[in-house]
Amino acid sequence: AQKVTQAQTEISVVEKEDVTLDCVYETRDTTYYLFWYKQPPSGELVFLIRRNSFDEQNEISGRYSWNFQKSTSSFNFTITASQVVDSAVYFCALSRTGANSKLTFGKGITLSVRP
Amino acid sequence: GAVVSQHPSRVICKSGTSVKIECRSLDFQATTMFWYRQFPKQSLMLMATSNEGSKATYEQGVEKDKFLINHASLTLSTLTVTSAHPEDSSFYICSAGTGTLTNYGYTFGSGTRLTVV
Predict the structure, then answer these.
(1) Interface list for chain A against chain B, based on CB atoms closer than 8 Å
(2) How far off is chain A from B37, nearest CA to CA, in Å?
(3) pLDDT of A78-104, one tens digit each?
(4) Residues 6+ apart with CB under 8 A from B110
(5) Contact (CB, 8 A) for A109 and A8
(6) pLDDT at B29 over 70
């Protein structure tokens, strides 16, 4: 069975602070995908990143960066110089590779960025 | 990129009535559609997986007769909440699988907020 654990439930920071959202996963598959999604108050899910299990390179996209550590089954997400617009719920998710595989979501982390 | 259009975005219905939610893939063919439910301040829970032209596969604990899923074409999947009750009030969101075997992803609809009064 697949499982995603986001131990942090709510995080509050002041604008311009850096913040890291943790994600730990469990799977018996040797290949899999990991995702991060952002859900603003409007409810829609915004895709942030997908990582293949065989690609352990860390990724940076603007103020966002992701640290994938297969040895610890973690896929953490860091926002640098946070902004009020980053306030949202962030979900980490896991799926098997291959078509039609379902996504398993973590419980989500509510991030509040105060001005 | 791939777009999934979900309607309605919000619906209020009376207890005992049925509500239909539609998800359309606008510029691609969605052979598989996933339906999720999300209660306030909770995660997305998969309800069922629908494949075009065949019966949906429901997750454990989800009532098939209450949540009717139809995926009659490659661009349209519908979820009908039958005889809705206040406890069915929730945020429902669909997702289509997109891409190839080695480059697979998910495109989400914008969600439907259902309130049963």
Answers:
(1) 33, 35, 37, 42-45, 47, 50, 91, 95, 97-103, 105-108, 110
(2) 12
(3) 999 999 999 999 999 999 987 778 899
(4) A42, A43, A44, B5, B6, B9, B93
(5) yes
(6) yes
Q: What is the C-alpha to C-alpha distance for residues A13 and A111, in angstroms, rounded to an integer?
A: 8
Please give the Cα distance from B56 to B65 (Å, whole number): 12
Contact present, A48 and A38 (Cβ < 8 Å): yes
* Location of structure tokens 């398993």: A104
Find chain A residues with C-beta within 8 A of B10's C-beta: none
pLDDT at position B9, please?
96
Mean pLDDT (whole number) for B18-22 = 97
Q: Report which residue type is found at A49.
A: I
CA distances from B116 to A21, A63, A104, B69, B85 (A): 35, 41, 27, 19, 6
Phi-psi category of residue B110: left, alpha or beta, with phi > 0 → left and psi -120 to 50 → alpha: alpha
